[in-house]
């Protein structure tokens, strides 16, 4: 039985490509590494409980002046 979840777990990795190579063979991918509209590169997959997991490169947010 497939469950729907609105939960998204988020992690950062300094080397998102290496993280993808380590993790991708062992999970059901939602999508491979992609650049998002805001410039961050991320990939997503489902964990065993069908929660979405996102792994992205660290994002630097500049303070507003």
From TrEMBL:
The protein, known as: Glyoxalase superfamily protein PhnB
Residue span, VOC domain: 1-58
Organism: Rhizobium aquaticum
InterPro entries for this protein: Glyas_Bleomycin-R_OHBP_Dase (IPR029068), Glyoxalase-like_dom (IPR025870), VOC_core (IPR037523)
UniProt lineage: Bacteria, Pseudomonadati, Pseudomonadota, Alphaproteobacteria, Hyphomicrobiales
PROSITE patterns on file: VOC
